[in-house]
Batch of 4 targets.
Target 1
Amino acid sequence: MHATIRRYESVDQSRTDELIKKVNTGLVPLLSKLPGFAGYRFIDHGQGVMTSIGIFETEAQADESSRIAANWVTEEKLGELVPKSPQITSGLVVAQADRELAAV
């Protein structure tokens, strides 16, 4: 498994709800259809900082997810919400644990 972490800074804090909705309804469906998709998380740190974590079977698939995400930001004209390119880190997942959450 490979992970790609994208850290976005200077996100328009007055429009984070809009961005979160767009990510959930637009980007997540695109990424989840990619070959090797294993998971995705989008984290709001506050203060205009957000991070996404994508998990894929191969490094090439993880890299493709970054290309898809960058194209999506451009196509959706989100430059005002996300004015800076993200810092991208990726690598081999060397330890992992998941717990199935009980349905409420």
Note: The longest strand covers residues 37-46.
Target 2
Amino acid sequence: MNLEQTAIVLARIQLIDNRRVDEEVIREWHLYLEDVADVPAALEAITMHRMESREWLMPVDIRRGVDRIRDAAITGRTDEWGNLLESDGPAVAALARLGRAPREIES
């Protein structure tokens, strides 16, 4: 994610909580999000957070949301004992909004 994309993410966040967003804030958030390459998933992570939490959204929430969406794209995942893991409903819905289909895990 580049600085311009980080600004887009922050603009989306600001729509709900009216936080102050200026060049300094954008640069600080960029430190925590620059390695997040999937910007559309980052925007969906904002939606997921807003639907699930009343908490103040932070960079870690975006990172976790992107990870959840990425994990939701892989079906057939199991735990260490071989039990099939339940799907993450909100992350699967975010995946659908992104127009991405889940794929079966490769053995």
Note: The chain has one domain: 3-104.
Target 3
Amino acid sequence: MMTLSYDVPGPSPAASSTTVDDRSTAFQPVEGGTEHRSGEALLVGAYGGLWLILMGWLLVQWKKQGALGRRVVELEALVQAASRAPTRPAGAARPEQTP
């Protein structure tokens, strides 16, 4: 049987002497960090990406709407052509069936 050991270090002696006031949640800037990214650049990039996605989606929808409109016009023309075709009596033979 396999036993698992979770060795988690306990609080350091220095941490146990701190009070709630010492652990405040105020922002404290860190000097000398290795990563530097501009918040403004990230924000502009995020908005730009969202705008590109939105414009691409709108372009696709516009093309689909145009294709659908053309198909509706085509179908309306077919329906009108079929309604103008002469009707034959129910007992009449088709022209291609005559000997």
Note: Residues 55-84 form one domain.
Target 4
Amino acid sequence: MVRFLDTNVILRYLTRDDEDKARAALELLLRAERGEERLATSHIVVFEAVYTLESYYGLDRERIRELLLPIIELRGLRLSRKRLFRQVFELYCQERIDFADAYNAALMLSRGQAEIYSYDADFDKVGGISRLEP
């Protein structure tokens, strides 16, 4: 059986603002890494975790990457296109662009798409992408 992993479990583990929940979340993640538990999550969960860690907890981008990538890359966690997130975090941290823009840019590059219609100048920072205005 595959069980869905929600954002709040990830956040309890990372923030340790409730030690009992943090410990239980860690045990769950360890079981997933050992293959004893099968988990799945969504891109929305990752986005929500990034947003919460950045806006509510005030963590910097590099720290958010350090915390979330190992969870995303857990052997026992299913997440579609999970390898894409390494590049998403690279763009998010190095180019200092919004996480959603970093995701869309990484997705475009993975698909071989080089042009985007957008008014958002963040895309001008991403090599291999040309921004067009309608």
Note: The chain has one domain: 2-132.
